[in-house]
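Write out the 3D structure for:
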Amino acid sequence: MTTKPELSISSLETGELGLLHLRRYWSKRLLEVEGRLDQESVRNEYGLDFTLMQGLGLGIVEPAEYLFHQRPSYAEFEQWIVQKLDGRPERALAERLNKMVRCYMEQPPRSYPIEEKDIQEPVLSAEDLAFWQENGYVVLRNAVPAEDCRNAELAIWDFLGMDPQIPESWYDGTHIFWVPLFQHPILNKNRAAPRIRKAFEQLWGTDDLWATVDRSSLNRPERGGINISGPSRLHWDVSIALPIPFGVHGLLYLSDTSAEQGAFRCVPGFHHRIDQWLERLAPEQNPREQDLESLGPVPITGSAGDFVLWHHALPHGSGRNLAHYPRVVQYITLFPHDHGIHPVWK
């Protein structure tokens, strides 16, 4: 078995785990580390890489960091995956992933949302969907039991070595905003919450979805008049080159969150007018450096267990935490394997 990375490795080649595309993914990341990867030649594989890593339950951050720092053989990479997952991927998951790879390679991407799909036992009402259509965001109340949110919040506090009852412990000089805790039973349970899945199914128009393995965040109150609220600047997480494909992101409030507590903010309805806004900018103007605050962002409050879904064309960000308790959230997104990704980053 070859242990050196080669771009000629096919997505159909497998290893001990029997997973399609995994060997090619490994080879591309190592070639990238060595500065030998022709990015243009593999640009259309980003969605496949993304779905494979998320579908395995690894996310995209930890595998990339491991490959960058360790530069393992393929056999070592497979062993690392087994260790991270506490065992080999279950047969049903491996079969579903292999089917996804073949579909990605052989079938054209679908157009989303799929309007004709009838989702059984929906959780978003007709009023919720009308609100979504107009504003580009919607809040699913009581998406996750409060007990699960509390346990997830405690897992984050424990990971950070902080005490939620002792404010002095929140300011140890190392934590900024993001919490790089990916693998935890309660976080995985929340990612699989039935009501969250149903909401994404309704908005995408399909039940063939994969869950991301994202970070969480702990947005601490300001201290001494200094803004330490993390990325409060409004932004987009996707390319805003036109046309912008349909996409949905989400976050779960793990603690009750008021408007002044660093709540999630977005510009309602901007997905309807972003095309015109972008076209009015002069060629030399960077859209991401404009005064997005002037667009009228609003804070979205919620209780522990409420889930915010937003159209990814909305400028969004966390607010400055001017309250007395951190805003604690878990980011969860469900997506189809052929969701649109613009080939040009803008």
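The chain has ten helices and eleven strands.
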